[in-house]
Design a protein that fits this description.
Length: about 210
């Protein structure tokens, strides 16, 4: 099991996105305080994260962007492509499939699952949609390691046992029902309402402090 904290893993993914954007602009080196500024954190935090993964470099010129991208990729990415299934191919499932496919070479949505007769048996955005009754079989056939859960919230808990039985190792749960899985299955419950409320809270705080200054 990895000893790198979850928050560091999240930040590494964010750093890599920024570094890739820099690389595309022809930027070859970046200082820790610049990377930190872009992400709204301190340079100490950036250096601590990179120390944790064993990255060191001559920092006089800043970090070599290409070298750092490769180093972070070596930590984050599996050596092989990781296959993903979408459970619930509605508005969100389809939007995520469209967004992801063709973008990340190491993460690939290979199948979707639904109960809607208009979707099952068809390809949606180039991805086959299977009935839930063949979930376990298809997970094995397509070597699916991760599922994106985008079913209605009301039935999310019904999918826990099929997910465990199929041998899934990671779940990204978009429903509003937080789910727990046994050790060995990593789950991320992503509730967009919580994230939006956090943004709204900080907007309110900023407005209140501006009002107080006037
Ligand atoms: N649409 C958004 O922007 C958004 C944003 C954040 C979170 N969510 C959450 O994501 C989930 C999906 O939202 P949506 O807007 O895509 O809904 P949707 O109704 O468009 O899609 C849900 C899909 O799940 C399928 N489904 C129903 N029962 C199923 C089962 N037992 N097994 C597998 N699939 C089943 C439906 O047939 C449908 O295709 C909801 O829980 C919602 O709260 C949606």
């Amino acid at each position: 099991m990895s000893e790198i904290p979850e928050k560091t893993i999240e930040r590494l993914s964010e750093y890599r996105r920024t570094l890739l954007a820099c690389h595309n602009q022809g930027i070859t080196h970046i200082f820790s305080h610049v990377l930190a500024g872009i992400h709204g954190i301190t340079a100490v935090q950036v250096r601590r994260d990179l120390m944790l993964i064993g990255f060191s470099s001559d920092t006089k010129k800043g970090y070599d962007v290409e070298v750092l991208i490769d180093f972070i990729s070596g930590i984050l990415d599996s050596p092989n492509v990781v296959n993903i299934g979408v459970l619930g191919m509605g508005n969100l499932g389809q939007a995520l499939t469209k967004y992801f496919n063709g973008r990340r070479s190491k993460l690939r949505i290979v199948a979707s699952f639904d109960v809607d007769g208009d979707k099952v048996g068809h390809e949606i955005d180039g991805i086959p949609c299977y009935g839930m009754e063949s979930f376990e079989e298809q997970v094995q056939k397509s070597d699916i390691k991760i599922v994106i859960l985008s079913s209605p919230t009301s039935i999310a808990s019904e999918l826990v046992v099929p997910i465990i039985n199929a041998g899934i190792k990671g779940v990204l749960n978009f429903t509003s029902m937080p789910l727990n899985f046994p050790r060995g299955i990593f789950v991320e419950n992503y509730d967009i309402t919580t994230v939006l409320e956090k943004v709204a809270y900080f907007v309110k705080e900023a407005e209140e402090s501006t009002d107080a200054q006037n």
